[in-house]
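Repro:
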Amino acid sequence: MPQTVGFYNSSDLASNCLLFQQAKPARIDNVAKVTSYPNPITQGISYVNLTQLAAGAYTIDVTDFNGKAIVRKQVQASEKSIVPVQLPQAVPGIYWLRVTNAQQQLVHTEKWIVQ
């Protein structure tokens, strides 16, 4: 199978200069693996799986579509960290799940649908 090569090109037509450079693939080495289920949420509860994160302190935030805070949980992640997040008062709609680490760096974001 032939190898595909991408090229970045730029031109300055005023001076007849053309620049071509082989594109390099982007890499993300430290991708955090956070999952949640079920989604869509039908029973007012979802579970956030933090088992593939480095052990440490994390914050789980759930906000509505307008950015209003619905839930905030401080948790300690370990190999067995599956955190229940209850949304008993949530009306049907779109919500955002955000997980940040102790340094306030965004680790994961996900759209939740509550039915």
